[in-house]
Design a protein that fits this description.
1 helix, AOC barrel-like, mainly beta, about 160 residues, about 15% helix
Length: about 160
């Protein structure tokens, strides 16, 4: 069995996410509902690359499309805008983090994610940030994501809907 090390920041991020989901579940009594979706980046801007020792950092702003499941069980596609930072080590290990805002139907919902690839072991986590606005108000979620192409991801996010 592979032992996985987590940094204190990752632990804080995970525990905070779990606490938010637990609060949402206890408030509504509803179980999280799984939502399978995709993210397709359509444009990148403010592209920067820098070397720091044996690591390469790439960061850029992006726009694209992101699926989200609504409380009525419909799956809709929103427009996302965000920022991504990726660190790649000489040995191929990778770390990335992103912040994005999804817009749909006049409302917005924030997401924050991070992932790592260490010795072939992929770990990822994504969580909604804030309470959302408009038709996205009260949507809370957390889950995982993986690359499906150079500018696309598949995700599985468990959502809870609060009034």
């Amino acid at each position: 069995m592979k032992m996985q090390r987590t940094t204190p920041m990752k632990q804080i991020f995970l525990y905070t996410s779990l606490a938010v989901m637990a609060l949402a579940v206890t408030t509504t009594g509803a179980a999280p509902e799984p939502c399978y979706g995709t993210v397709q980046l359509s444009s990148q801007s403010n592209f920067q690359v820098r070397q720091a020792g044996r690591q390469t950092f790439v960061e850029f702003d992006f726009t694209g499309l992101h699926d989200i499941c609504l409380e009525d069980h419909s799956v809709v596609t929103g427009i996302v805008e965000g920022h991504l930072v990726q660190r790649t080590s000489e040995n191929g290990d990778l770390g990335l983090r992103f912040d994005e805002v999804l817009s749909y139907g006049g409302g917005t919902l924030g997401y924050r994610g991070e992932a790592s690839l260490t010795r072939g072991n992929w770990q990822s986590h994504v969580v909604t940030v804030g309470t959302g606005t408009g038709p996205l108000t009260g949507i809370h979620g957390q889950g995982t994501f993986e690359f499906t192409g150079p500018a696309s991801f598949a995700d599985l996010i468990y959502y809870v809907y609060t009034p």
